[in-house]
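Worked problem 6 (solution included).
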Amino acid sequence: MEQSTPGLRFLRRTSDRPPRRFSRGVALLPSLFTVANLFCGYACVVYAMRGEYETAAPFIGFAIVLDMLDGRIARMTGTASDFGLQFDSLADVISFGIAPAILSFAWGLSSLGRLGWAVGFLFVTAAALRLARFNIQSAAGGDKRYFVGMPSPAAAGVPAATVFAYPAGLQDPGEALLGLAMVLLPALLMVSTIRFRSFKTIDLRTRRPYTVIFLIAAGIMLITTSPQFVLVAMAYTYLASAFVEMLVIRIRHRGGRGLSEGGRPDAAVPAQDRATR
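Solution. The predicted structure is:
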């Protein structure tokens, strides 16, 4: 049997060398984005405890962007794993559960006493339940075009955008009662069965992604120009989008049923006669 001489290894052709494995840095890249997501949640809590709400709220927005990127990067590089999924869920509980709850409590719900921190705890519980249900449904498969229940990043974006637009806070208990809806409504929607549109089906690798790129550029321009107004509009528009879509589907369903009963000429013709025509 012919054996290779250790001193002549440099003479081996490139095609004879074993293929290199993926770099460990590529495999760790999604987890690094998750760590950055976790740091944003922690930073939000720290600044909220200091009373610097205008600085604390944007960290939730940064965490939302990082949470969107880590999953896409893991799928694109083929480095998705069960560990990454669980790590991402634990980070999301901090960034999209605890951080917005503490931010909302320090910003305005603290004037309500026990009711304020109880509502904050309800938001944390809803976020944890939403993430646990999402992991189970993802493993079982399903329609990727929709989320069952409001996604926790979008739910966290509602109080974060509100606080960022009005960082002065709510000092009066009467005003703080209005802040309860800001926390309670997203919490209830997270554990509901209402379907929210997902953007995971957007493919940026198509040959002509001009429309998607243009919309992203327009969104960046609007956020840069007037971040407080645009972020609030985006957060509450997505919250209301599920109800608008439900209303549109119901109207279409009623319209289609009305046509089938008497609007189409074929409705008065028996099925056998239609089959012979």
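Discussion: Confidence is low (pLDDT under 50) at residues 265-277.
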